[in-house]
Amino acid sequence: MTCSPPGLTMSDRPALFAKMRSEPGLCRVEPFGAYAAARYEDAAAILKDPRCFSSEALAVTAEPAWLGPNPVAQSMLSMDPPRHTPLRALVTRAFGPAGMARLEAQVRKVSEALAEAAVRQGEVELVDAFTFVLPRDIIGAMLGLDPSTFSEFKRWSTNMGLISSARTPEQYEAVRATVREMKDYLSEVIQARRRQPGEDMVSDLLQAEVEGQKLTDEQFLSFLFLLLPAGMETTTQLLGNSVLMLARHPEQLERMRADKTHIPRFIEEVLRYEPPTQLSFRLAVQDVELSGTKVPAGSLVLGLVGSANRDERVFEQPERFLPGRDKATQHLSFGYGVHFCLGAQLARLEARLGLEALVSRISGLRLRSPEVQWLSGFTIHGPEALPVELIPARS
Ligand code: HEM
Predict the structure, then answer these.
(1) CATH number of the domain at 2-364, out of 3.30.465.10, 3.40.50.1000, 1.10.630.10, 1.20.1250.20?
(2) Per-residue pLDDT of the chain (395 residues; tens, 9 = 90+)
(3) Which residue in 38, 222, 228, 253 has the most C-beta neighbors within 10 A?
(4) Going by DSSP bridges, is the β-strand pair 27-29/2-3 parallel, antiparallel, or unpaired?
(5) Domain chopping of the chain, boundaries
């Protein structure tokens, strides 16, 4: 089966994905001539089998000919076991339950200050005022970065997200400039922490060892290149998609205001229904057959998370938004297998405390435009801007 690109307009996506799922096997898609797995079982099979489907695909997609070397291409996200294993072990500790417990008070403080200011404004653009700033300030604090430098992060994050969809000379140059600027900035951060360690994740990781090995500066730069946009971009979309679902389902706002233990259920369903990352790339290492489709070695393969999460074979009434549904956490939005998102607990923590701060202060939320302006790329999924009216709750 051959299909058009995986939905450049958001409104077409559910129907296109449903059509792709209607037949067994993988589907050829442009622009990469890739083999796309639209059914849950196939997408999960691809993500969990690095021996057949290599994450080195990221090295191909992150370094198009017009860009040249990009440290993300050498990050853990683009490595397979056994190379991936010690790196993952080294950085995992910082993201575990103890690390999250340490961060909780700070996430709450930032969430409350941002929500307070946004509600005071009433009519507000929430991406700039809330959904981007919250994850930006938290990842900045985790890495011990200077807040006066944060103003560049939005542009960097947007431009890094353009790599697979950039088409114009201006976009190419914007991405090239961003890679240069981030390299200079993050190399300086590493050097500064080597000279004078602080109480932050960069300093901790510079000291950490696995099997007697420390991270080299090059490995460290690649990790920070991955972490800085990963920590901001996807969580921004989770918060943004949550705000959209709140506007569409006012009864959910009521429910969360009455019972904040409902918030994690709501977040999990936003993750399933509108996943911030719509697909993951892999490279077929050898000729392989999956659900009847022969995939030649060297082919680009896509796990279509946006489609798998709505697979009727796994989720009942998948096109309905039903927080608290059965199999609520079985979505593939944080990946599956060895690359399962390192920041999943952090993203859930930020979304929970961010929404708690917002919903406790409002009795209603209206979109100021009925048309949602979605981000233009096809991998990262969320609203580009969120002009809303927030109706304060009576205290
Ligand atoms: C809602 C928010 C987020 C979503 C939807 C998300 C999604 C994902 C997905 C799908 C993967 C696996 C990609 C693959 O298999 O190819 C991944 C990996 C990763 N994520 Fe996230 N992510 C989110 C938030 C975060 C945050 C907050 C951080 C860090 C601060 C983070 C850091 C990472 C890292 C380091 C990896 C690579 C893990 C590895 O290669 O072993 N993510 N993420």
Answers:
(1) 1.10.630.10
(2) 555 544 445 568 899 999 999 999 999 987 678 999 999 999 999 999 999 999 999 888 899 999 999 999 999 999 999 999 999 998 898 888 888 888 999 999 999 999 999 999 999 999 999 999 999 999 999 999 999 999 999 999 989 988 888 889 999 999 999 999 999 999 999 999 999 999 889 998 888 887 788 888 899 999 999 999 999 999 999 999 999 999 999 999 999 999 999 999 999 999 999 999 999 999 999 999 999 999 999 999 999 999 999 999 999 999 999 999 999 999 999 999 999 999 999 999 999 999 999 999 999 999 999 899 998 878 899 999 999 999 999 86
(3) 38
(4) parallel
(5) 2-364
Distances (CA, A) of 248 to 45, 243, 263: 34, 9, 16
Q: Establish whether residue 28 lines the binding site of ligand 1, counting it when its CB lies within 6 angstroms of any ligand atom.
A: no
Residue-level length of the chain? 395
Query: Does 282 contact ligand 1 (Cβ within 6 A)?
Result: no
Distance 204 CA to ligand 1 centre (A): 20
Exposure b/e, 302-319, CB count within 10 A at least 16 = b: bbbbbbbbbbeebbeebe
Compute the distance between CA of residue 247 and CA of residue 324 in angstroms, rounded to an integer: 18
Q: Does ligand 1 lie within 6 Å of residue 276's CB atom?
A: yes
Any alpha helices (H) in 25-152, and if so which ranges?
40-47, 57-62, 84-92, 97-121, 126, 133-142
User: Using CA positions, which residue lies closest to atom 7 of ligand 1?
Assistant: 334
Q: Are strands 288-290 and 34-37 parallel, antiparallel or unpaired?
A: unpaired
